[in-house]
Amino acid sequence: MIRSIETGTNNEILRTKSEPVAKVTREIRKLARDMKATIGPAGGMGLAAPQIGEHVRMILITIPGEYYDDTGFEGCQPDKHMILINPEITRFGADQCSFEEGCLSLPDYFADVVRPCEVEFTALDEKGNEIGGEATGIFARILQHEIDHLDGILFDDHVLNKRKKDPSKIYI
Predict the structure, then answer these.
(1) Beta-bridge partner residues of 47
(2) CA-angle at 30, arms to 55 and 145, nearest 5°
(3) How many domains does the chain have?
(4) % of the chain exceeding 70 in pLDDT
(5) Is 112 contained in some domain?
(6) Between 120 and which of 1, 54, 58, 91 could a Cys-Cys bridge form, CB atoms 3.0 to 4.6 Å apart?
(7) DSSP letters of the chain?
(8) 146 a catalytic residue
């Protein structure tokens, strides 16, 4: 089911830290299906459960085919939804990269955000299997952005200058 996306920098739902998923249940798998249904029409590359009002540590990453060459994680396939449950960054790389970010929860703005260029992470997939490894490129960027959502952090917390969104672009 397509769900409404929470918006606003002062939205208490978006500013609340999410709880770990204790077990992959039928309800968690349904939430994953809802997130997949919601991301398509919304036009983003990532979605965190709090963005649809659920305070559990689960994110979705979808890399559009045109960005796939810069994916940076071998477990990701172009135009396929990847659900990560209890994602955790276990190591941040030393090099920093600037990249233009937007957010479905702040639909009118985008800005350059500096983040580590590479990370290592762990998570569970939809079946409860442990996955993870090194992530670079767009995958590392989306992973960090979406995990921030799980901690009540929005991308504009990282920037000084927000700009109006370009309707011809797809943002994280």
Answers:
(1) 60
(2) 45
(3) 1
(4) 96
(5) yes
(6) 91
(7) ---PPP--TT-TTTTSPPBPPSS--HHHHHHHHHHHHHHHHHT-SEEEGGGGT--BSEEEEE--GGGGGG---TT--TT-EEEEEEEEEEEE-S-EEEEEEEETTEEEEEEEEEEESEEEEEEE-TTS-EEEEEEEHHHHHHHHHHHHHHTT--GGGG-S--EE--TTS---
(8) yes
Q: Which of 6, 54, 118, 146 is catalytic?
A: 146
Domain containing residue 158: 26-164
Residue 172 lies in a domain: no
**Is residue 142 a contact partner of residue 113, using CB atoms and an 8 Å limit?**
no
139 domain residue, yes or no: yes
Amino acid identity, position 112: D
* pTM of the predicted structure, to 2 decimals: 0.90
* Residue 140's pLDDT band (cuts 50, 70, 90): very high
Please name the residue that has the structure tokens 């997130």.
Answer: 35
Q: Is residue 72 part of a domain?
A: yes
Q: Residue 60 is part of a domain; what is its CATH number?
A: 3.90.45.10
